[in-house]
Specification:
CATH architecture of the largest domain: 3-Layer(aba) Sandwich
Oligomer: single chain
Largest sheet: 10 strands, mixed
Number of helices: 11
Strand content: 25-35%
CATH superfamily of the largest domain: Vaccinia Virus protein VP39
Low-confidence stretches: none
Number of strands: 19
Helix content: 25-40%
Number of domains: 2
Order of helices and strands: HHHEEHEEHEHEHEEHEEEHEHEEEEHEEE
Radius of gyration: 22 Å
């Protein structure tokens, strides 16, 4: 279809749905109908878009606000006092892929972790009916705002202010669980609250896992195509993580033990995926020094262990590190095995979560090459 210079919300929704179908993100008519019916703009009266390192703020009434609300990007909707984003409306193409991966059927009940703006809960409510949707978010203010906007859109699912990592046992068992926040590991309560045969779709590290729940409340599956990260689940509404900005100066100046190491290309998808699986709680970012050499920085906020990896050649680097944990020594074996296996993409890996909460990452098959992930 052709969009006019000033398209209406209906035209923008049509254009968005057509694009998501064309790109293969939407694969079924019920989800296409949901994206056509639910007004995204109703859930984001004010938001910020990050583009090329710059933040652009939009408010209802701005000439570009409506069109911006239908961009295929994440819309940042809440920030803490330090300017770190703490809530957003997820990129529609990623939402569509996750909703399709959930593989819902009429009559299924879904537990959503992370209410955010309420837009995703509205899509679920349109597809399944509000009585079949339960959404949990740690932030009471977000829950209240999402509830009001959902009501305006004509949907009244169950919204709960609480710790999403604990699920919501009062309405269990559920047929599906969708986490729209990042988690370091799949919590045991999620496994316990899903029916045998249920499905979990959740962001772990920088990938989206699709896990089938077994009768013993274990779960296993593979990762969706493409890498993606969500804002991490917070234990309390005011909890904040350690930001990279606050670590730059210390990590460039700290002194510790030094040794020469061999490294793969750390910024390629394979090492990024494996690092996020092994070290979900580790701050991991790259800098460039005055001579243009890349410096990889790792920091563990629990033990204050750190590592600084400065490239000295194509595969060589100098490692400086300190603290009780040798972060690079923990990461190196997994990267070496990845290299020796022919540098497989993340879609060849799978994950098994056992009833006791243990996580096993495996390559190609559950009984193949595998690694027990730290708790």
């Amino acid at each position: 279809m052709t969009i006019t210079d000033a398209p209406s919300a209906d035209e923008l929704r049509q254009h968005m749905a057509d694009r998501l179908v064309r790109e293969g993100c939407i694969r079924s008519e019920p989800w296409r109908a949901a994206f056509l019916a639910v007004p995204r703009e109703l859930f984001v009266p004010d938001f910020t878009v990050r583009a090329q390192g710059t933040l652009h703020r939009y408010s209802q009434g701005d000439p570009a606000w409506l069109a911006a609300a239908y961009q295929d990007v994440s819309l940042l909707t809440q920030f803490d006092q330090d300017g770190t984003a703490t809530s957003s409306s997820t990129q529609p193409s990623l939402m569509a892929q996750m909703l399709e991966a959930l593989d819902v059927h009429d009559g299924d009940t879904v537990l959503e972790i992370g209410a955010g703006t309420g837009y995703n809960a509205a899509l679920l409510s349109h597809r399944l009916g509000p009585d079949h949707v339960v959404t949990v978010d740690v932030d009471p203010e977000l829950v209240a705002a999402a509830k009001a906007r959902l009501r305006l859109a004509g949907y009244e699912p169950t919204l709960i202010a609480g710790d999403g990592m604990a699920g919501h046992p009062e309405r269990a068992p559920y047929d599906r669980l969708l986490a729209t926040c990042g988690v370091p590991r799949i919590p045991k309560p999620w496994l316990e609250q899903l029916r045998p045969g249920g499905v979990i779709v959740a962001n772990i590290g920088c990938a989206i896992a699709h896990l089938d729940v077994a009768a013993d409340h274990s779960a296993a599956g593979r990762f969706l195509p493409g890498l993606a990260t969500f804002m991490n689940a917070r234990p309390t509404p005011d909890a904040v993580g350690t930001t990279a900005g606050s670590l730059v100066q210390p990590l460039l100046t700290w002194s510790g033990q030094t040794r020469e190491i061999t490294i793969p290309a750390l910024d390629t998808p394979g090492p990024q995926f494996l690092a996020s699986m092994l070290h979900p709680g580790i701050s991991d970012f790259a800098l460039a020094d005055d001579e243009g050499r890349q410096i990889r920085c790792l920091f563990d906020p629990v033990t204050s262990s750190w590592a600084r990896i400065t490239t000295t050649g194509v595969t060589s680097a100098r490692l400086d590190h300190g603290g009780p944990r040798d972060l690079w020594a923990e990461r190196e074996p997994l990267l070496t095995q990845w290299r020796d296996a022919g540098r497989p993409g993340h879609e060849r890996y799978g994950l098994t979560v056992f009833p006791d909460g243990a996580h096993l990452l495996w390559l190609d098959e559950p009984d193949g090459m595998s690694w027990r992930l730290p708790d």
